[in-house]
Each structure stands twice: as structure tokens, then as C-alpha cells.
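note to self — DONT lose this again. spent like an hour looking for the file last time. sequence + predicted structure for the chain T wanted, 224 res
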Amino acid sequence: MNFEKLEESIQYTFKNKELLKKALTHTSYAYERGLESNEKLEFLGDSILEFISSRYIYTHYKKLKEGEMTKVRAEVVCEDSLYKVAVKHNFSDFILVGKSEIHNKGNLKPAILADSIEATIAAIYFDGGLEETEKFIINNLKEAIEISTRHVGMKDFKTVLQEKLQENGEVSIKYTVIKETGPDHDKVFTVKVDVNGKELATGEGKTKKHAEMNAAEEALKRLK
């Protein structure tokens, strides 16, 4: 398989192409051909990803408290976030899956694609060192980290709204996604918040969680 288009997309050219191939080799494909899968690379890539993202957050967002930094990292270093990176670079066109997974469209599964990103991180580390690995991670997660740091305190809005609405007894609060726009790796969600079946406010965000928080914040403004 020619990985040239993928290398061009991720802005890193492997000296050892076999490392990239291994990073894209799912267990189902490896089992059928007696090869080594990407599982061990994925294990290391996960640790490298946590370290690099932690250092970046620590260095660039000095006002965040420890607990807030932990929340930002958890939100960015997750399956959904890594899946978006894989979609952005069309990893599904290159990942090697076995016959059973081909039948089940395994090359499109979020978990398999997210794992391939972690494995690729380790492959870049072995092939080009930590500096190149950091470039790949930060280039792909910088925006997500920035968005997450802006919303890290938003956890309070839903709680505050709930407490305010329930001052005089129990009420039914429901958040519903009413619109999704943009490609899979860069979606914008619109969420409405209903109270006892009546719409109170709407909000937008890059994730459902952020959209819910924005809707809750808007609802609180309207209740003042």
C-alpha cells in the first residue's frame, strides 16, 4: 500500500515505512496473516499523547488549576477527539483490517480509528523522535485544547440552571440536539433546553456537551 497521501496529510514522511504500516495494522488483519498488530504501538502512543498534551496545557494555560487541566486533557485525549483526527486525515482509507472487520466496516469504526492515531503517534516517535511527535499531536489537537480550556468552567451552568429552576419544586429539564452542521471532524451542534416541555433557550458548540452548557448559560441569562 502506498502511504504517500497519508504522509502528506499528516505532514510527516516516514523513513521506515514498515513502522507506519504496523501502526495501521488492526489485530483482525494481523491475526489472518501472522503479523504483529498495532496494539503495542497504541499502548506507548497513549502514554506519549498524555505526556505531550499535559506539557502543552501546563505550558500554555498557566491560569488553569490542576483539576481544570485534568478535565481539559481528559476531554481532548479521548476516543471522540482522536476519531476526528483520523477522519480529518482519511485514516479509514489506509487502515488494514481483516475480512471480518471489512464486512463490518471496521475501517470506519471510531474505536479502531482512534486507536490507529495512538499507534501512529508511537510510530512517529520511533521514526523521528519526540519533537516530530509533538508537532503531530499539537497540530491536530491545539484547537480542541483551546476550545476545551475556554469551556472548562462551564460545568457550573447546567448545575446552576437546575438549582435555580428547582427552587420551588421538581421540574423536568431536557437537553436535545436539534441540528448538526459541518464535516465529521469539525461538527457544530445546536442544542435546545426544555423545561417541563417548553423551550427555554438554545446553544451551539463543537461538542454536544459544550452546546448544552451554552444553552444552559443562555437560559440563565433569560431568567435574570
